[in-house]
Design brief:
By secondary structure, the chain is of the alpha/beta class. Helix content is 28%, strand content 11%. It has a single domain, classed as TIM Barrel (Alpha-Beta Barrel). Bound molecules: zinc ion (2 copies). One zinc ion binds next to loops. One of its GO terms (molecular function) is DNA-(apurinic or apyrimidinic site) endonuclease activity.
Length: 494
């Protein structure tokens, strides 16, 4: 029952999703999904999130209240993705000290960031006629590629922006709180302020991460597809809290795993439970767009492995302006959507457009796959070095559909990458992706192997592959429960 979707007009190239190049928020551009049934002449929703303290409507006002000082989360430590970690000192803008540490820690301080210019723009590729299934650019207007990695919020949410800056990323993903706990302390008002300051353009002293460049990843604990009401309620509270935090921080895009039937109901019932949560949260928290991630493990209890399932959920969402899809390439591949060649990529994206609609694409997770096509195993690999290969990622980088939405690496990195602030692997991957984007079709044929070989050596020198085909530090999560890894490979296992 996906909403029938008119094919896009090739004549005028009327873009479904066109974004302006600069600053503008997601909402400035006509962001109209082709949801035929629900015409939504969205009168330009507001860009500015309100100051957190003013958000009455959602009844979560208390969240901004000041948490007790010195609370250091139980499991907080450097590299742990807990915003509370090391963030428990009194308000102060910079050079704050927490437990004897300065903020920001020198390893992620902005002075050490590489310049982020040089990569920001999508150049219309030299290919003919949108072979990728993407939208041919309607103008010659250049649009930014918001390419980055999932970064840690250790030390507070602002840490994610500082780390992304250090990796040379134009976009990023982050958690809003510890992904392993149902509840975390509310943000300190100054942590929110610090984050919002860093989002500002460089001219205003920030790092220049506009709201549409950030795709928050929701807690792994959430399962809104569970028919058990009590469990659904617990998940919903966590979900809403995540989204409220996005709102506080001025972030527009929130992505999460739709859930699982846990074998206790039909898929259709799960779709309804998930949509119920989406509709409810849309009423309770303003503005944030809920972005459903496609999942690996087709044929299991997991919801969202097929485009049709994503479409079925979207069909039940009342406010289509606030629902999008995030496609994880590893999950796609694991669920049987091929991306290895120009043709298979085009075919997969065509299916997406037909079944869901290109207008609903709100972000991508860029991961290669250690496992085979339709292997139903979610094992992330570094870009181009897994079973998908570089060609698939080159297609993505050259697909105009990808301009202006967050493209996030969730690829394996060395064990201590976060603690040491060594983001070499993601910096190289970002560079590599821009490099292959710029190579035209003819040259690609002759250079692909050479580039892959060079990159494999580089990767091996930064992060030698583990034996056994397991992702770096991918340790089994306890009894089918969610993993604890953050910036590393993301294994869905339930
Ligand atoms: Zn995910
Ligand atoms: Zn993902």
């Amino acid at each position: 029952m996906p909403p029938p979707r008119p094919r896009r007009s090739t004549a005028s190239n009327a873009p479904i999703r066109e974004r302006s190049t600069s600053s503008s928020s997601l909402f400035d551009a006509p962001l109209k999904p082709k949801a035929s049934a629900q015409p939504k002449p969205n009168p330009k929703a507001k860009v500015q999130a309100k100051s957190p303290a003013k958000t009455k409507a959602n009844g979560t006002e208390k969240k901004v209240s000041v948490k007790p000082k010195t609370v250091l989360a139980d499991d907080a430590k450097a590299g742990d993705d807990d915003p509370d970690a090391g963030d428990a000192e009194p308000p102060k803008k910079k050079a704050r000290t927490a437990k004897g540490k300065v903020w920001p820690p020198p390893e992620i301080a902005p002075e050490r960031h590489p310049p982020r210019n040089g990569y920001p723009i999508f150049e219309s590729p030299s290919t003919t006629a949108a072979p990728n299934g993407g939208l041919p650019p309607s103008t010659t207007e250049k649009r930014p590629m918001l390419l980055g990695a999932h970064t840690s919020i250790a030390g507070g949410p602002a840490g994610a922006l500082l780390r992304a800056g250090k990796a040379g990323a134009n976009g990023l993903a982050m958690f809003t709180k510890s992904q392993r706990k149902w509840a975390s302390n509310p943000y300190e008002p100054e942590a929110v302020e610090r984050f919002r300051d860093l989002m500002k353009p460089k001219e205003e002293g920030g790092l220049g991460y506009p709201p549409e460049s950030i795709l928050v990843h929701g807690s792994y604990l959430i399962n809104l597809g569970n028919p058990d009401q009590e469990k659904w309620n617990t998940s919903y509270e966590c979900f809403k809290d995540d989204i409220y935090r996005c709102h506080q921080l001025g972030i527009k895009l929130y992505n999460w795993h739709p859930g699982s039937t846990v074998g206790a109901c039909t898929k259709e019932e799960s779709f309804a439970s998930i949509a119920k949560a989406i509709n409810k949260v849309h009423k309770e928290v303003p503005e944030v767009v809920t972005v459903i991630e496609n999942m690996a493990n087709a044929g299991s209890n997991i919801v969202g492995t097929a485009f049709s399932e994503l479409a079925s959920i979207i069909a039940l969402v009342e406010n289509k302006d606030r629902v999008r899809v995030c496609l994880d390439t590893c999950h796609l591949f694991a669920s049987g959507y091929d991306l290895r060649t120009e043709e298979s990529y085009a075919d997969t994206m065509k299916k997406f457009d037909e079944e869901v609609g290109n207008g609903y694409l709100g972000g991508m997770h860029l991961n290669d796959s250690k496992a085979d096509l339709a292997g139903n195993k979610d094992l992330h690999e570094n870009i181009g070095l897994g079973k998908i290969g570089l060609t698939g990622f080159r297609c993505i980088m050259r697909d105009p559909l990808m301009a202006g939405i967050p493209l996030v690496l969730e690829t394996p990195a060395p064990e201590k990458a976060l603690e040491t602030g060594d983001f070499a692997i993601w910096m190289r991957e970002i560079k590599l992706l821009y490099e292959i984007q710029g190579i035209d079709d003819e040259e690609w044929k002759t250079r692909k192997d050479e580039i892959e070989e060079r990159w494999r050596k580089e990767r091996d020198s930064i992060n030698p592959p583990k034996e056994k085909g397991l992702p770096a530090k991918g340790k089994a999560a306890p009894k089918g429960k969610k993993k604890s890894k953050k910036d590393d490979s993301e294994e869905e296992d339930d």
